[in-house]
């Protein structure tokens, strides 16, 4: 049986996870948690680079973060849907790795794939726990599985978050994983068309946002998340 993961992070495109919750992932891995990443598409519609290059960059970023697994489901960039066939593919992954916590795209965002991916993964997390939905992988009937928690990471939009995670000691690893996607980011020598994420300003904004979220809670750097569930703590002193 495949080793169970503590956390599974989904991204519509390679680099979504690193840009949005790379510090949180690095922190959880450092604490001994088993974490995986699943990319829904290869980012083949991206203006810069290519799908093959993004594959290599994603592999390098995964090595930097130290994740246990990284898979790509090969959904069509820009055109995948929140429908039965796509939900079943997500369900197979959830039942394969049995994560306790799922992280996924922002519910609303500039890129149309992000909100759609958020709904797709969230819906699949519920459906994955239903007995009457059967999935078969390698000629074996999978056991049902429903994650305990599903959280959405922040992306382009600066929407309010429900909670933040202190990543002060892991900001350098987060930025190193992001910089693995050299084809997508600022490069003064590049001759490819400019995109919303290819400027130095965008790269600076990633660290600036983490710094601002950290400032609000009294630490150096943090990452923000939203959730549909009621948050709880064992005691009020658990809050920073």
Strand content: 15-25%
CATH class bucket: Alpha Beta
Mean pLDDT: 96
Number of helical runs?
6
Q: Can you write the helix and strand succession as a string?
A: EHEHEHEHEEEEHHE
3D structure, described in words:
- This protein is about 35% helix and about 20% strand.
- The protein has about 240 residues and is α/β, with parallel strands linked by helices.
- The protein has one domain (about 5-240): LmbE-like (Rossmann fold).
- The strands form two sheets. A seven-stranded mixed sheet has the order 3-2-1-4-7-9-8, sandwiched between helices. A two-stranded antiparallel ribbon has the order 5-6.
- Strand 5 (about 135) and strand 6 form a beta hairpin.
- Helix 2 runs antiparallel to helix 5 (about 170-180) and helix 3 (about 85-95) crosses helix 4.
- The radius of gyration is 17 Å and the shape is globular.
- The model has no long low-confidence stretch (mean pLDDT about 95).
Key attributes of the depicted protein:
240 residues, alpha/beta, Rossmann fold, 6 helices, 9 strands, 36% helix, globular
Topology of this structure?
Layout: E1 7-11, H1 16-30, E2 35-41, H2 51-65, E3 69-75, H3 84-97, E4 101-104, H4 112-127, E5 136-137, E6 140-141, E7 149-153, E8 163-166, H5 171-179, H6 200-217, E9 222-227
Parallel strand pairs: 1-2, 1-4, 2-3, 4-7
Antiparallel strand pairs: 5-6, 7-9, 8-9
Helix pairs in contact: 1-5, 2-5, 3-4
Short summary:
The protein has 240 residues and is α/β, with parallel strands linked by helices. The protein is built from six helices and nine strands, in the order βαβαβαβαββββααβ.
């Amino acid at each position: 049986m495949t080793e169970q993961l503590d956390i599974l992070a989904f991204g519509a495109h390679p680099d979504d996870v690193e840009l949005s919750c790379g510090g949180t992932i690095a922190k959880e891995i450092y604490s001994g948690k088993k974490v995986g990443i699943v990319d829904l598409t290869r980012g083949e519609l991206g203006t810069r680079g290519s799908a093959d290059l993004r594959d290599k960059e994603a592999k390098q970023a995964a090595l930097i973060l130290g994740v246990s697994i990284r898979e790509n489901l090969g959904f069509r960039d820009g055109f995948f849907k929140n429908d039965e066939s796509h939900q079943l593919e997500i369900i197979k992954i959830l039942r394969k790795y049995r994560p306790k916590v799922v992280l996924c795209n922002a519910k609303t965002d500039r890129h149309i794939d992000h909100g759609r991916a958020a709904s797709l993964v969230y819906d699949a997390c519920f459906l994955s726990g239903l007995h009457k939905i059967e999935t078969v992988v390698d000629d074996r009937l999978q056991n049902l599985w429903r994650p305990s928690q599903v959280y959405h990471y922040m992306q382009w939009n600066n929407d309010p978050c429900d909670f933040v995670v202190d990543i002060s000691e892991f900001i350098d690893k987060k930025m190193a994983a992001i910089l693995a996607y050299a084809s997508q980011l600022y490069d003064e020598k590049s001759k490819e068309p400019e995109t919303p994420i290819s400027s130095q300003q965008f790269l600076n904004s990633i660290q600036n946002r983490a710094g601002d979220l950290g400032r609000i809670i009294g630490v150096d750097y943090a990452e923000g998340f939203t959730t549909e569930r009621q948050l709880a703590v064992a005691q009020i002193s658990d809050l920073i």
